[in-house]
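Service request form, structural biology core

Requester: graduate student, group of Dr. S.
Request type: structure prediction, single chain
Budget code: on file
Notes: please return the result as structure tokens.

Sequence provided:
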Amino acid sequence: MTWDEYQEMVVSLLDRNIKKEDNPQQHQAIRAPPSQSQFIVAGPGSGKTTVMVLKILKFILVDNVPPSSILATTFTKKAASELTSRIISWGNKMVSYLLEHPQLHHLHPHLESLKLDETTIGTLDSIAEDFLGNPHVIEESVSRSLMMQKLFEDDLEHNSDLLNYLKSMKSHQGILGVTGMSEVLLEIKDRIFHDQVDLDVLQKEEDHPGCQVACQLIANYLKELDKRKLYDFVRLESELLNQIKKGHSRGDDIKIILVDEYQDTNLLQESIYFELAKKAIENGGSLTVVGDDDQSLYRFRGATVDLFTQYQWRIKQHLKIEPHLINLSWNYRSTPSIVDFTNSFLEVDEDYQYARVRNKPPIKTARKKGYTDYPVLGMFRPDRKTLAQDLTCFITQCQTEEGYQVHKDLKITINQGDCSLLMSSPREFSSHSAKLFPHYLRQHLQQEGWEVFNPRGESLERVESTELLAGILLEVLDSDKSIENSMSHLPSKVKSSFHKWRKTVKRCKDPALDEFLYEWKNNKKQIHLLELFYELLNWIPDEDQENQVRLEAITRTIKQTSLFAAYHGLIIPQNEDSSREIFWNVLVPLATGAIEVDEELLLDRDLDNKINKQLNIMSIHQAKGLEFSLVVVDVGSDYSKIHRSHAYKRFPLTGDASSHLEDQLRAYSPLGEAAREKRDRAFDDVIRQYFVAFSRPQNVLLVIGLNAVRDGYQVDDARNYIPNVATGWDRNGQWHWRGLDNLFMI
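Core staff response, request fulfilled:
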């Protein structure tokens, strides 16, 4: 069919106006021929998913590109599912419409044989799994468990050279436990792959004695993966690149490549895309990348935002092509007040402009009429308890018919459950068990009959349901503690957790549980740990959504560790080694905090399915890609005074841990030295984090914190102010939003 026919069908059938005179940005992106590579800089709420879907359908229906020749990658499984669903639903709607018209009978055979589900859509990791024949891939918690075992095997958790090296790589002050050591080792391993580090040169030129120990540990970890025929995610991507270069992967017929969230790409992933793009361009096709440098949040996981901001130069150097730049800057999500606020936030810090794509236009509101343009609100209170109480009142009133009366002429009403609290960290307790703001908010909301969804609010090993489950498992496997006592190298934290878990079982005083433990002790049977775990769930209430997610984290770990365990997760009577293996693979990692509810597990959950009288409390990272009618952004419930311990979250004084590790390894990478100083990179990250938070709401944005964040605090005769990126401070210490007069205070 012709472009004009396609365009009219999109407008009339899908109610998406992509005409040049009405929507020039999307029109330009969608109409491009298959041979045109594009660099699409897509601001928040700019309809990038719509553009990707309509580009793909246009390639199929107008340009006659076979669906099997199209590959699109997304950052999360949920985004991939949404993209696939929309391509099929919109595509089928179009095909059905065309089949109903007799004058298009010459197209009917082609349309009837069209298989839209043959497009390859997924995360890069899921596509790599498919290309490589679906090998066994372990998740992050299992990687931590495996690395921890390598530390214990050679008693290296106490090696001073290794410990000092790991601390130096992250510029870490204070104690670094075995879990922390495992995490740093894995981060170094990932960086070596992500940044394509020359490991031989690193080992030759690095004179720190701990470097050799760390590299050997990483080598042992990788050998264990080889031995068990397992992959972690970074090794999976590395193998995909190797196979593509050798010409062994199934990508010869690719013609169209689209990459979403390109701002969070690393050098390894860029290399994969460029290698695939060579084939696509040879086939007369193209590479289109979509992203937004202002929403790059994953530098701590190896992402290099420079690959996005320098994309036009880099692709010209590698592939000799010049992509067409398109800025999607019309925001269809948020009200004008919210859009203006986010624009002004990005303009606060002059130095930040040098970290962005050049000549980037500001966001413009394009939302259709029929809404109330509420001002951006502020709520600041003297302490956490008062803030929690007043925020509860606001949230509950907003979702009643009466609404929240801002003033006599303005009332806020939103749909029930369509709200979220975004924070730097959703923890409800500090490392010293002090109660934090989300804990007080949970208490007040529950008193009003509300549910709170915050499965990361407390460390997994300290949650009551986990303590009970783990305690029962300890009693089943090792009621007399003989196995536990025989295990050398157990960290004190593990022993303490084991002791606490066993006490939780004793406090339970459930006759049915006592009978179960008695029967098990006297009638031991061979059973798989997963089967036993499901039996133990009888003592855990299953209606709690938070518990379901937490239990899923443990279940995944059991399934994954069974892949490489010698006994494959089997508990064999009279065989202590089978039980000891479960200690090392599951119980010890759980006790040290190595098993957790990670971002990926939460991203799989459908948070767009709004639940009445429920508040989602989440990290800003978790909220990326989501939207809510009401968004509350916490910019300072922890800050009553200036303290260095939380400076990295609000006003970095030095480079962060990720910056330090980058600089240590980039010297041995094709990336070379970073263009920006460590502190600047840390500052840029905080700006991006709060830009993402401020751009999530559709209708209402409420900024909250303690009074000291807005008004400062008195010490003797002087008033001290708390520098904070989120409240309009620049990195030079100038407060552009002094007193936060740009917020409507409630």
